[in-house]
Amino acid sequence: MTRLFVGSFLADAQALGLELQDFASQIEVSKQASFKAVPTANLHITYQFLGEVDENQLASIKARLSNLATDIKAPLPITVTYDTLSAWPSPENARVFVAEPSIKPQALMAMGAIIRKNLQELVRIDPSIERNLVFKPHITLFRMKNLETKPVYQLAVQKFQPINQTIEAVDLIESKGHYVSIMTL
Question: Can you give the CATH number for the domain in which 137 is found?
Fold first, then answer.
């Protein structure tokens, strides 16, 4: 079994990674809580999380993505501005802070819909979670646990600066602690 998703990495993630570390230090969270920036190399947008997939399904997934390559690449590059910081699942019980765009480019939403529609029957994820069913463009910035998140979230919102991403490629990505592209469209 391999854990897969379809996404796009941030081209300028190195600079953003340094900004996120600075952002985290400004928030000054207690050492008893876990508040960690996502590793720079893992910063990405996910179009479709596939979950744990059997190795024998990998060829089928790659073939479907190859058949979609022209449609997926047609609107590229797409520029997205993530200008809203959100706490998921809620500010009171946040497990992650994500950056979301207040304006979702039509080309981005169409591309996400094409990918989801064509891979939906291969998805191995919990259908009761809304974000597993609906494409919600976002970048996960921080993961948290053992933290009273509402006050941290309120401070983070005040200090948050928008993030720009130019999407130039779409990848089939394997998650194994770190993320590795196993196919680029």
Answer: 3.90.1140.10
